[in-house]
Amino acid sequence: MNATDTEVLGTALEWLEHGQRVALVTVVETWGSAPRPVGSLLAVREDGRFFGSVSGGCIEEHLVARIDQDFPTLPYLTGYGVTADEARRFGLPCGGNLRLVIEPIRDSAGIAKVVDEIRQRRRICRTLEMSSGEATVAATVGEQAFSFDGKLLVNVHGPRWRLVLVGAGHLARYLAQFAQMLDFTVFVTDPRPEYRTQWDVSGAQLLDGMPDDAINELGVDAFTAIVTTAHDPKVDDMALLEALKSEAFYVGALGSKRTSASRRIRLGLFDLTAEQIDRLHAPAGLSIGSHTPPEIALAMIAEVIAVRNGITRG
Predict the structure, then answer these.
(1) For 9-62, how does the pLDDT look when each residue is reduced to its tens digit (9 = 90+)?
(2) 162-308 belongs to which homologous superfamily?
(3) Res 82 pLDDT > 90
(4) I need a surface site. Which of 56, 172, 178, 243 has the fewest CB within 10 A?
(5) Are 257 and 270 within 8 A, CB to CB?
(6) Would you say 43 and 15 are in contact if contact means Cβ atoms under 8 Å apart?
């Protein structure tokens, strides 16, 4: 789950706890070049204040005014950009269309539970019954995902994406900055004093201890990516030995093809299976002809995003 939608629920909860009426808007269907995916959220307070986005700014003003003038009593379905005239009116790109569910939040305790579960890095499912407006919250089952059939709106909320960088050098600085712009929580581990003392990227937390211990203590899950950038086998390999055995959705290592081949041979001398070693993306990064540290960082974070979105190298 991205940071913005997590913050939407937290903001809605804060408003509810202060006695405000709040409507939650959820993207339930898109066509064309819709700027926000299904499941995206917008919270609208009864006085017209809002937080979040369902269209990247195209329809929010009209939608908020609509809710402000006629606050809903039950959930309902509405659409934007369904016709060419609407697409032009609201500025939806390339004729994109949206369908949205607008619901008055009745149960602050349910929203509080969702927020708490996300903070505990657990996936949680919130199910809204359209006819009654009642919402229930429960643990997800298997690979349960977002769904909407006109009667039930099922939205699965999960923990925020994380990126762990091994090595606090020049390249890691750009990676940390790119990752934070893309809604990742960033952690950095490097046992070398000369690199630790100069690390000053705001918002990127420097972890204590050796890389393998830091990764284990952090608790890596399927919403975590790990990238080694130290260019020092004594640092990178320690982290990779733990990362490749973890649930991390992406494990990558900086280095040339020759360096990467040598690294795989070294990793094979330890207690890793061939399947675990095959998880390693090395050389890390998409092939964009990058040479400078910012270009290399861009290629690497792009591959992380591609893997997260289910796209693999062809």
Answers:
(1) 999 999 999 999 999 999 999 876 556 788 999 999 999 999 998 876 678 888
(2) NAD(P)-binding Rossmann-like Domain (3.40.50.720)
(3) no
(4) 56
(5) no
(6) yes
